[in-house]
Write a structure and sequence with these properties.
single chain; alpha/beta; 2 domains; two-stranded antiparallel ribbon; 35% helix; globular; Class_I_gatase-like; ThuA-like domain-containing protein; ThuA-like
């Protein structure tokens, strides 16, 4: 009798163990399924390519930009790949990306194949484009000539001079209706910038979004243009595009107006869906 009772108890325990095992496996399976769904939901849907200046005086800005873009990418669900030369750029390579960023990379030292690919990318609207600071260094530098197409894309300008010592100034927004300027104050201060001057204002061929008020230079400088756009977009091409002159000092990423504009520019140029 005792043996029969013992066997009965053993069988009951065994059944409970099997049921518990099945329950645990179901829970684990559900947890794994939920995890895979969550991963699928946060997988970056937009790919960004940034060509960044390697080394030099702009390296601190580039490093700060990379950290900020990594944070924004996690928030807005996009990924950024970085290159430091144009050697890999061709049409097929650019077609992998919805946005191309010139992160202080100049418009020279480009291969002919890369030039042709970028022209096609921008003129045909294969993706968006955002340029910073050094992207408007148009002229003859390091043995390279002026890139005529890029000069026209930038408003027909040629680099003329710059303020070597850092100068603080007020930037005034002109087109507050543009998507890039949403949530940006009518004017804001930019500290420690080496303002470029050009041989002409690009205003005649681009949509000026903001200008620097040269009367607010601190300290003052004789290097002035009069009409001095510093943020603009070229509506004559199919790609959504924005150029930001400001892009020398890493502290720009502590400037709320600046980061708001750059965030807006990325969302607009890359055609990111609305939140």
């Amino acid at each position: 009798m005792m043996g029969q009772v013992f066997c009965f108890m053993f069988d009951t325990s065994s059944n409970m163990a099997r049921q518990t095992g099945r329950f645990l496996m179901s829970v684990i399976g559900l947890w794994l399924l939920m995890g895979s769904v969550a991963l699928a939901q946060v997988k970056p849907s937009i790919r960004v390519l940034a060509i960044a200046e390697a080394g030099g005086v702009h390296q601190p800005f580039v490093m700060a930009a990379k950290q900020w873009l990594a944070m924004l990418g996690r928030e807005q669900v996009f990924s950024v790949d970085y290159i430091t030369t144009t050697d890999s750029i061709d049409r097929q390579f650019l077609d992998q990306y919805q946005l191309f960023i010139q992160l202080d990379y100049p418009p020279y030292r480009w291969t002919d194949r890369a030039k042709a690919a970028l022209v096609d990318y921008i003129e045909q609207g294969r993706g968006g484009w955002i340029g910073f600071h050094h992207a408007s260094l148009l002229g003859e530098f390091d043995g390279y000539g002026l890139w005529p197409w890029f000069s026209q894309f930038m408003g027909g300008i040629r680099y003329k001079d710059y303020i070597a010592s850092f100068v603080t100034a007020t930037v005034r927004v002109e087109n507050r209706q543009h998507p890039v300027m949403q949530g940006v104050p009518a004017s804001f201060t930019v500290e420690r910038e080496e303002w470029y001057t050009y041989d002409r204002s690009p205003r005649q061929t681009v949509d000026v979004l903001a200008t620097v008020d040269e009367s607010t230079y601190q300290p003052d400088s004789p290097k002035k243009m009069g009409d001095h756009p510093v943020i603009w977009s070229n509506g004559r091409v199919k790609a959504r595009n924005v150029y930001f002159f400001m892009g020398h000092h890493p502290d720009l990423f502590r400037n709320t107006a600046y980061t708001t504009m750059v965030r807006n520019a990325i969302r607009w140029a890359a055609r990111l869906p609305s939140n």
